[in-house]
Amino acid sequence: MTKPSKRTPLDSDLIRIIEAKHHDPFSVLGRHTSNQKTVIRAFLPYAETVSIGEKGPAMQRISGTDLFECYPAASQNIAPHYELFWTDKDGHDHLDTDPYTFGPVLGDFDQHLFAEGRHWHIYQKLGGHLHNMDGIDGVYFAVWAPNAERISVIGDFNRWDGRCHPMRNLGGCGIWELFIPGLEAGSLYKFEIRNQHTGQVLVKTDPYGQQFEFRPQTAAVVVREDAYQWEDGVWMERRPNHDWLHKPMSIYEVHLGSWQRDNRGNFLNYRDLAGKLVDYVKTMGFTHIELLPITEHPLDISWGYQTTGYFAPTSRHGSPDDFRYFVDLCHQNDIGVILDWVPAHFPKDSFALGRFDGTPLYEHEDPRKGEHRDWGTLIYNYSRNEVKNFLLSSAFFWLEEFHLDGLRVDAVASMLYLDYSREANEWIPNMYGGNENLEAIDFLRHMNAVTHEQHPGTVIMAEESTSWPQVTRPTWTGGLGFSMKWNMGWMHDILHYMQEQPIHRSYHHDQLTFGLLYAFTENFILPFSHDEVVHGKGSLLNKMPGDEWQRFANLRLLYTLMFTYPGKKLLFMGCEFGQGTEWSVNRDLDWYVLDYAHHRGVQTLVKDLNKLYKTHSALYQYDFDHQGFEWIDCHDYQQSIISYRRKSASEDLIVILNFTPVPRENYRIGVPREGVYLEIFNSDSEYYDGSNMGNGHVHSEPQPWMNMQHSITVTLPPLAGIILKM
Question: What are the catalytic residues?
Answer without folding.
Answer: 410, 463
